Amino acid sequence: MTETVDVEGADTTIGGSEGTQPVGTYEVATSIVSVELSGVEVEARVSEPLGAPGLRPGVVFVHGAGTGRYERAFLAQAEALASSGVVAMVPNKRLDTYTTRDRDYTAMANDYLRSVTILRDLPGVDPARVGVYGESEGGWIVPVMAADNPAVSFVVLVAAPVVPPRQQAAFAVDSYLRETGVPVELLRSIPRFVGMDFPGGGFEYGRFDVTPFQQRMRQPVLMVYGTGDAAMPTVQGALELIEDLEVADNDAWTVRYYEGADHGIRVDGELLPDFARDLSAWVQALPASADAAPKVAGAEPYQRFLAEPVERPRWYAEGDLIVAALVLSLLALLTGPLAWLVRRLRGRRGRTLADGVLGPLVAMGAGSVITFLALVAYLLVVANMAQNYRSSTFVVQGGWLGLRMLGIATVVAGVVLIYRILDGRRRGSESAAQTLAGEWTLAGTVVGSVLLLLSLAYWGVFPSLW
């Protein structure tokens, strides 16, 4: 990352906030309303300031990734806004059309716009001052809602990815794993995994591009990041949004960075009071606060790497083929045990493989399976550590070293096997496989092991091979 955002000062206080009410001014009343969507109904919690005079501005909250229930989401934000005189509405996320494989951000935007319509019609709400607040994944939905839509009077984007989902996923995983201290070989495999088409299809939303919608947003925009959020391109996101708003001829934008705050602008699990203060002031003071100085303020953000487009892997690394190769390798490795079992059931005894072949063959087959399972276990452990911002040199580096040693030992067993087969042929002694069952055992174990070892090499266990 070579560009940067010019932060004009450390004070995040929103200018143009004269006459606004601070957080905590009013008592808050909550109620539940129903939102009719196409084919389903969801509930929404409305938080209102008791005794606030006149028509009040309103905010509809748009959830990030996950289930999105009003009982848990945006509680502190809605309370802060309502206690300062802003009506806040948190609808439940529609889940019947939202899965890991399939998401339609345009359809989700249309669903959330139904909540905007309801909030605009509530008593005590100024329909000309109702905006939307999107956090994380909501940063791909809110611009769709706001593009060319005067019903949305302002936009708040918190921890917005800006770049397409696949690009964002690769960036986030890379950032988390770098913080954990994983080997560079593992980092190189991230785009290979994120860029492939997954088995069974789906995940088309991973290529969703929010840029055309941001370029049609003409409302005032408040963009917020926490400097402790490693998952987001905190510099690149702001720069790209500003460029998109320039296309819309919109200079009514404000950017705020909060020191040490995480993805939800929290520190130690609590919503940052300065953020609640600034959010409330910005919403209340509109339109005066839309272009109030400073436009960029707060802590100095840092982004080491760009969130770049993820290329499609080569044909042999697509999800369906990877799964097919894995299944084929396991079936091939089962050939030997099944052949041995069939011979036993038929009462046949005697050798199926020549002397000196069985040992390295078993070591090669078992080693490839153990190494593959060890890789899966290692990835799960490291992923858990990365999500919880933990690191351990012994686990991360020591585990990777042990994994590579297992892989090398398996390759050595394969080399010994080949040497003994060739040596037997050179000396004109008996064949490596004594029976048909032996031939199937030898072929199946070698084929299955080679497929697993190639897969391990692709994911970085043998980086020198690729």
Task: Tell me what the structure shows.
This protein has 466 residues and is α/β, with parallel strands linked by helices. The protein has 2 domains: 28-164 and 208-298, Alpha/Beta hydrolase fold, catalytic domain (Rossmann fold), CATH 3.40.50.1820; 315-465, no CATH class. Helix content is 44%, strand content 14%. It contains 13 helices and 11 strands. The strands form 2 sheets. The protein has a 9-stranded mixed sheet, with helices on both faces. The chain has a two-stranded antiparallel ribbon with strand order 9-10. Strand 7, helix 8 and strand 8 form a beta-alpha-beta unit. Helix 1 (75-83) crosses helix 9 (273-285). The longest helix is centred in the C-terminal third of the chain and has 34 residues, at 393-426. The model has no long low-confidence stretch (mean pLDDT 91). InterPro entries: AB_hydrolase_Est10, AB_hydrolase_fold, BAAT_C. Residues 115-171 form the BAAT/Acyl-CoA thioester hydrolase C-terminal domain. Keywords: Hydrolase, Membrane, Transmembrane, Transmembrane helix.
What is the total tally of β strands? Answer: 11
Largest sheet: 9 strands, mixed
Q: Regions with pLDDT < 50 over 5+ consecutive residues? A: none
Tell me the CATH topology of the largest domain. Answer: Rossmann fold
Give the C-level CATH assignment of the largest domain: Alpha Beta
In total, the number of domains comes to 2
Lateral arrangement of strands in the main beta sheet: 1-2-4-3-5-6-7-8-11
Question: Helicity, in percent?
Answer: 40-55%
Structural class: alpha/beta
Overall average pLDDT: 91
Distance between the termini: 27 Å
Classify the beta-strand content into a percent band: 5-15%
Radius of gyration: 29 Å
- Per CATH, the architecture of the largest domain is 3-Layer(aba) Sandwich
Count of DSSP-assigned helices = 13
**Helix/strand order, N-terminal first:** EEEHEHEHEHHHHEHEEEHEHHHH
